[in-house]
Design a protein that fits this description.
Strand content: 25-35%
Distance between the termini: 55 Å
Shape: globular
Largest sheet: 10 strands, antiparallel, barrel
Order of helices and strands: HHHEEHEHEEEHHHEEHHEE
Structural class: alpha+beta
Number of strands: 10
Length: 304
């Protein structure tokens, strides 16, 4: 073979012919219909970045995580109850990976910025979830929340362990413990480009980030910085950053960088075209450990 022909062959693109990785979930994959709506993690609607009809819904990633954690049946029953009670395209989901022990956990988020939906209240959502999840905590009085969330883990789905409610009011969140509210965090949202100086100021002011020792690019890598909004949060035991509306390839890298279960990494990576119309939200909690900003939890978000 001539050297020129050899060089031409070397330049040919490499095609992945292996196909999608095997799934852990036994449930049928859900695909997008003509009336599907797409939302980021604050339930703000966006237009898909590629034709969506017949492609996969983000919910499939959540269901796959349930299967990986051994709670697929229980998780699916919970999701069915939420959709039956509130209807489609009104709920944000989050999957969390706790880095110390690798366990997955989840959170469901419910939004009503204008308090316009009479069917959405903490008491009603707790009642919808009651056959599947023991939700503890309630409002001590009517509060001007714009959203609330319910945390759950394998123990809550399998053993009836209590699941907490977080209430969000004017850029602050509180955890409901019985009839009391415990302060959780304060957070700010910034345009990733127009307000980068504010983002940098917020990060450099985090008590768990030392500008003289910690590398900023480890918290804000380039593939995440190319997002729509950045949220910086200060929590009781950690600081946090969230990146909204990243494409599927960036999600794949995020899962790899933070050592998520291989089966979930493979699910996303080998279905990049079927998920390529979607935008995702991701976040990290970090804490100073031995003087270094260390990620202790990471999360990914979608909606259904």
């Amino acid at each position: 073979m001539s050297p020129e022909r050899s060089r031409q062959r070397a330049r040919l693109p490499v095609t992945n012919v292996a196909g999608p990785a095997p799934r852990q979930s036994l449930a049928p994959l859900e695909t997008c219909g003509p009336d599907d709506r797409f939302h980021d993690y604050i339930l703000a609607e966006y237009e898909p970045i590629a034709p969506a009809l017949g492609k996969l819904r983000s919910l499939n990633v959540l269901v796959e995580s349930f299967a990986i954690a051994g709670v697929e049946r229980e998780g699916l029953a919970l999701l069915s109850a939420v959709r039956a009670g509130l209807g489609p395209f009104r709920t944000v989901w989050g999957i969390k990976r706790h880095h110390a022990h690798g366990e997955l956990g989840w959170e469901l988020y419910f939004y009503d910025f204008q308090r316009a939906h009479a069917d959405l209240s903490i008491a009603r959502v707790a009642a919808i979830l009651a056959p599947h999840l023991r939700v503890t905590g309630r409002e001590p009085r009517p509060l001007p929340w714009h959203m609330f969330s319910v945390e759950l883990g394998p123990a809550g789905l399998l053993e009836g362990a209590p699941s907490a409610i977080d209430i969000y009011i004017d850029m602050r969140s509180y955890k409901c413990v019985a009839d009391e509210l415990v302060f959780e965090n304060v957070y700010t949202f910034h345009d990733a480009r127009a307000e980068i100086e504010e983002v940098l100021h917020r990060v450099r002011s985090c008590v768990h980030f030392d500008p003289s020792r910690d590398a900023l690019h480890r918290l804000m890598p380039a593939h995440l910085f190319n997002c729509r909004k950045i949220c910086v949060a200060n929590k009781r035991h950690a600081d946090a950053m969230y990146f909204s509306r990243i494409p599927t390839p960036a999600l794949s890298r995020f899962l790899r960088d933070h050592q998520w279960p291989g089966a979930l990494q493979d699910f996303v990576r080998t279905r990049d075209e079927a998920l390529g119309h979607l935008l995702w939200d991701v976040g990290i909690d970090f804490r100073a450990i031995d003087g270094r900003a260390t990620t202790i939890k990471s999360g990914i978000y979608g909606s259904f």
